[in-house]
Amino acid sequence: MAVKTKREALQERLRGKYPDKSFDDDEEIYGAVNDDYDAADKERADWAEREKGYKDREQGLVDMMDADPRSAMFLDKWRHGGDPSVELVRQYGMEIKDAIDDPERLKEIEAANKEYLERVTEGKKLEEQYAKNLKKSIEDINALQQQEGLSDDEVNEGMTTIITIIKDGVLGKITPETLQMVFKAVNHDDDVAQAQREGEVAGRNAKITERLRQAKGDGIPRPASGANTPVRNRQPANDIFALAAQAQ
């Protein structure tokens, strides 16, 4: 078994990740490696930023629990299935109810309850919209599959690609390969139309060239069959192809 060189191993690895490139050129190899390093650096930076946010929130919880140990007990009981309202009374006593019933705090409580209800309502609306959109999307995908004769594997592969792009977008990860794929899809109809126009122009030019050749003749003399051999019909003088032949 032949042992691959480091270069061959790297080329094979890059071709697996970027199947549309050959990587026969050093600049192409170095460019892909550099792009991978940039993507890895950005991912590490994003992770570090998220980790910092996690640590800040964790520190905030720790500070809160240090300031009032009852909050830690409340959260722990709630986490294990306890009723939050009961656990509030258990940790803070009936004074929590007195605070809720305090007229001076009524506006704050009403505002907090309104915010809660709005959040719940918005969540239900989003769930309903999601279910409605998903149902319509599945119907459209099934119709497209039947129309184009696509296999289940092809549909699944396309859906996997779309979901990957969506997840990357949510995480702020947009790769050059994704942009290139989108550009190709956006410009596809224009490219096809341009190719069609070029084909039509080429076809018309070929017909014009052939008619010019016929009008001019191939330059080979033809022996007469007799004195009364009729003269070849000439095209009208106002025919563009005859005029072009005469000009030549």
Explain what you see.
The structure is a single chain. With 248 residues, the chain is mostly helical. The protein has helices at residues 6-17, 26-67, 69-79, 84-92, 95-101, 106-148, 152-170, 176-216, 240-247. Helix 2 (26-67) packs across helix 3, helix 3 runs antiparallel to helix 4 and helix 8 crosses helix 9. The longest helix has 43 residues, at 106-148. The protein is elongated. The protein starts with 5 loop residues before the first helix and ends with a helix. The mean pLDDT is 77.
Mean pLDDT reading: 77
Q: Low-confidence parts lasting 5 or more residues at pLDDT below 50?
A: none
- What multimeric state do the chains show? single chain
N- to C-terminal distance = 68 Å
State which percent range the strand residues make up.
under 5%
Q: What profile does the largest beta sheet have?
A: none
Compressed to H and E, one letter per element, the order equals HHHHHHHHH
Estimated structural class = mainly alpha
Alpha carbon gyration radius: 38 Å
Helix content: over 70%
Number of strands: 0
Number of helix segments? 9
How would the global form be characterised?
A: elongated
Question: What's the topology here?
Answer:
Elements: H1 6-17, H2 26-67, H3 69-79, H4 84-92, H5 95-101, H6 106-148, H7 152-170, H8 176-216, H9 240-247
